[in-house]
Amino acid sequence: MISDSQSAPKLHKNEGIKAASQHLRGTILESIANVSTGSIASDDQQLTKFHGLYQQDNRDVRNERRKQKLDKAYSFLCRIGVPGGVSTPEQWLVMDELATYCSFDTIKLTTRQAYQLHGILKSNLKNVIQRSTQAAMSSLAGCGDVNRNTMASPNPIQTEVHSQVQDIADKIDAYLKPQTSAFSEMWLDGKKIASMEPRSLGMGGDDIEPLYGSTYLPRKFKIAIAIPPQNDVDVYAHCLGFIAVIENDVLVGFNVTVGGGMGMTHGNEKTFPRLADTMAFALPDQVVDVAEKIVSIQRDWGDRVERAHARFKYTVEDHGVDKIRSELENRLGYKLEDARSINFEGNGDRYGWVKGSNKKWNLGLFIEGGRIIDTEKAKLKTGMRLIAKSGFCEFRLTPNQNVILANICSENRDTINALVDEHGLDSYKSASGMRRIQISCVSLPTCGLALAESERYLPSLVSDLEGTLEEAGLSNDEIIIRSTGCPNGCGRPYLGEIGLVGKVPGKYNLYLGAGFDGARLNKLFRASQTHEEIINLLKPILIDYAKDRQDGERFGDFTIRKGYVLATSAGNRFHKDLGEVNP
Ligand code: SRM
Ligand code: SF4
Questions:
Q1: What is the assigned CATH class of domain 434-572?
Q2: Would you kindly state where each structural domain of the chain is located, as residue ranges?
Q3: How far, in Å, is the centroid of ligand 1 from the Cα of 334?
């Protein structure tokens, strides 16, 4: 006879680490107090993620230090989420100050509307968290097996709908934050943060974490809210998505999407990017309830044995959307309506000056790679600091790593324009269409999972294509290009009309054919290509596009029509339908 212990599959070791951590405490404080090393204990490295902290090392100096028999150059990344990317000038100034004194003097704006500071020594972590918390920001749940920063379209035009949507994003984000007092106890000397309000019990968690329980979720969870016609948040790339349905200028509710995600592993057929399915329609006051119950389904049904299969997209794929919907309605105790008709036009950002329905002005700035830094060429960090100090605008971090200076009165436009021009923040006016719409993940030197360069590579690739774009008359055309240093998908590369995914140093898999509206994945065109090979492959296709495109036809659609790649059949996952490699 098989005993229970023989038949039950062994849970992934992270499940044990979470369970034994006393709600995310572990031995983090002891690890940090240990001055004999810059690193922390390996179990604590898993737990600090929930506090928004990743241990990393500078990979540029790894080999040299190894030769010199030195420890790795350890430091930490701190990720500080602001729901919907909404940030005050005071918050910007705190990020600027922390970046200057204990990070690499640079701020990274992420693809999920958050701030990242790299290079923080462990002795500085408490100060970074305290300073951010004083400015009403938190790194809690920046990473880890919980709901991450809730994204929302930073739409500066339909101001009223946007503020209603933002309000919902804030509510979802606060509601799904972990409740453990570990964060305040460890970093804030016991002071509570705003999101730590008592919750009702009975969700299947425990007294301390009513929703998450002691083992939290099987894996990270991501939510985004889109406001059509912009799909700037890439709503279909998310575990759970809400698409605003606006009728006669009024927000009537949201289409609910489930089961999106980008990450995969080279050579592991069981992993694949998947676009979310549209499942139902929810009223505005049902949305937080829907988010909570979906998260609880993933908590109970998600895979806690195989981490590579633990994202919600696999739960949806395995059980099917109908079963997820019926379980959701069961847990809600009411039925949802069917999804309504919506229309997306694109997943990029708006640049330049636009007037909101509140008559205030917004200026969309292009920040290449989301990198706020002072260089010889442009003093972006100084410029943004002076803009924040003026107090004339708010900041909206976009899902494409850019910034919108928001809610500017007419009389302050000249001052903002002067600061923007003086500090080289005006590249939105001159950058080519392809450059403006790029995304690249961080990758080297900080990312421990990087296989190839990304943020330090994509700008040079675009430069080398710009000659061809100009000759072909495509300089101003927005052709979505996205790169990542590995297949995890942090720059959502499988939604690029051109996607580059690092394979080994200097080589990339080249993908083509995603939809401009973010509703169709791209497809592998050629594997393991060098820079020269990528250029040689792309140039003739771009020239062909310039000559032979139909009216209004987007580059991704063109590559499919002309047979460079096949369309993904169901539109929502590759591998399974058509095999990875293009014929
Ligand atoms: Fe990511 C892991 C950076 C958005 C999928 N991601 C990482 C880590 C923490 C590497 C690690 O685990 O050691 C990277 C830190 C690099 C560094 O030095 O900063 C990292 N991810 C980023 C950021 C900063 C990229 C950027 O340049 O903006 C983005 C931070 C977002 C945020 O503010 O929260 C970022 N990551 C994403 C996205 C895009 C999104 O969410 O819209 C994805 C794809 C969507 C998805 O989740 O399916 C993404 N990151 C991953 C994965 C793959 C997860 C999977 O399903 O397999 C990993 C690896 C993992 O979790 O094991 C990962
Ligand atoms: Fe690192 Fe890969 Fe994410 Fe890029 S895609 S940041 S290389 S994990």
A1: alpha beta
A2: 368-432, 434-572
A3: 35
Distance (Å) from CA 65 to ligand 1 centroid: 27
What is the rounded end-to-end Cα distance, in angstroms, of the chain? 50
Question: Which of 303, 446, 490, 573 for mutating ligand 1's site (highest number of atoms within 8 Å of CB)?
Answer: 490
Return the ligand 2 atom nearest residue 493 CA: 5
Task: Report how far ligand 2's centroid is from the alpha carbon of 490 (Å).
Answer: 6
Nearest CA to ligand 1 atom 1: 490
Is the CB of residue 311 less than 8 Å from the CB of residue 304?
Answer: no
Please pick, among 79, 177, 520, 573, the residue that the annotation labels catalytic: 79
Closest atom of ligand 2 relative to the 485 alpha carbon: 7
Q: What are the strands, taking DSSP E only, across 227-339?
A: 240-247, 250-258, 277-282
Q: Whole-model pTM?
A: 0.96
pLDDT tens over the chain, length 583 residues: 445 556 789 999 999 999 999 999 999 999 999 999 999 999 999 999 999 999 999 999 999 999 999 999 999 999 999 999 999 999 999 999 999 999 999 999 999 999 999 999 999 999 999 999 999 999 999 999 999 999 999 998 988 999 999 999 999 999 999 999 999 999 998 777 655 555 554 567 888 999 999 999 999 999 999 999 999 999 999 999 999 999 999 999 999 999 999 999 998 888 999 999 999 999 999 999 999 999 999 999 999 999 999 999 999 999 999 999 999 999 999 999 999 999 999 999 999 999 999 999 999 999 999 999 999 999 999 999 999 999 999 999 999 999 999 999 999 999 999 999 999 999 999 999 999 999 999 999 999 999 999 999 999 999 999 999 999 999 999 999 999 999 999 999 999 999 999 999 999 999 999 999 999 999 999 999 999 999 999 999 999 999 999 999 999 999 999 999 987 644 455 544 333 433 3
At 102, phi and psi to the nearest 5? -140, 15
Say which DSSP state 106 is in.
Answer: -
Active-site residue, 148 included: yes
The residue to which tokens 């991450």 are assigned: 148
Report the C-alpha gap between 334 and 357 in whole angstroms: 36
What residue's CA is closest to ligand 2, atom 2? 486
Cα radius of gyration rounded to whole Å, the chain: 23
Judge whether 359 counts as a catalytic residue.
Answer: no
Ligand 2 centroid distance, CA of 503 (Å): 12
